[in-house]
């Protein structure tokens, strides 16, 4: 069964999960901040927009570390790609579907008041009830969506 779920082995997932967990612990112990990327856009807009929505104290106060955190995610992926030499990327998903999916994820992130990195990694780790409910909702909706798409004839 493991070969079916993890055709390339489980080690890379275990190492990746351990590194994510370690990163979250380091951020929390070092700064007292619960890591998460869902408010990156609003906090970044606070640099350039005078609209009250973007000038809220929580956005202005957190914008610097959120920019660094998000850049770290992107640069970490770039460093891994450069280190492994694997620059290939392929998908059979049409670009419009990727855009619609990204939009729906963004809407869900705002409705759930956080993303999977905040709720799934940090919130569940701190036993937050809100995060536990959100993660259960993420999983149930994902499973339901996968079943619906499969029933419609879409195969990976």
Automatic annotation (TrEMBL):
Provide the membrane topology annotation. Answer: Multi-pass membrane protein
Stored Pfam families = Sulf_transp (PF04143)
Q: Which residues cross the membrane?
A: 12-37, 65-83, 135-154
Query: What UniProt keywords are attached to this protein's entry?
Result: Cell inner membrane, Cell membrane, Membrane, Transmembrane, Transmembrane helix, Transport
Q: GO cellular component annotations, sorted alphabetically?
A: plasma membrane
Q: Which domain of life is it from?
A: Archaea
The listed locations are:
Cell inner membrane
| Keyword Methyltransferase assigned | no
Name of the protein: YeeE/YedE family protein
- The organism is Halorubellus litoreus
């Amino acid at each position: 069964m493991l070969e079916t779920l993890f055709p390339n082995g489980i080690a890379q997932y275990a190492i990746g999960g351990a590194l994510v967990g370690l990163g979250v612990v380091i951020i929390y112990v070092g700064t007292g901040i619960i890591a998460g990327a869902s408010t990156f856009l609003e906090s970044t807009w606070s640099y350039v927009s005078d609209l009250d929505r973007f000038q809220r104290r929580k956005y202005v106060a957190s914008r610097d570390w959120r920019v660094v955190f998000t850049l770290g995610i992107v640069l970490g992926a770039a460093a891994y790609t450069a280190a492994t030499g694997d620059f290939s990327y392929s998908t059979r998903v049409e670009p419009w579907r990727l855009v619609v999916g990204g939009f729906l994820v963004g809407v869900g992130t705002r409705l759930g008041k956080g993303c999977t990195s905040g709720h799934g990694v940090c919130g569940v780790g701190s036993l937050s009830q809100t995060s536990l409910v959100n993660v259960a909702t993420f999983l149930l909706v994902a499973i339901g969506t996968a079943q619906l798409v499969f029933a419609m004839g879409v195969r990976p």
